[in-house]
Amino acid sequence: xxxDKKGNLRKINKLSKQIREHIRNDQRSxxxxxxxxxxxxSGGTRKALKVLREKNYWIPxxxxxxKSFTQRKDILETTTDFYKTLYSxxxxxxNYETNANxxxxxxxxxxxxxxxxxxxxxxxxxxxxxxxxxxxxxx
Length: 139
What we know:
- The protein is mostly helical.
- It contains 4 helices and 5 strands, in the order ααββαβββα.
């Protein structure tokens, strides 16, 4: 029985090595296919390298339906869905109002949203959020 365990462990080790080797080969072939595709499409590798980057966090903690996304593929799907729904109805228009106190543009979502009334969003708040994203990206 002990000899069977050793034989089984050797078989498992051998299979594990083969699996790791096949995974590496698949990753190489996927990388080459992606590079070839983008070189043929645009003549450059910049976009291909962005697509192949899996560990780079673009937006920390992007949430949709109480789930956080950190991988590029999931973030792209989430943002694509968001903008599709945002621009799906062209009849909705954002009206800007001037706030007399601080003279910032105010986006009033209650005028174009069919959902429950939400709080007004100041233009300076939007700009501040964008700047903070730039700072997080650069660091």
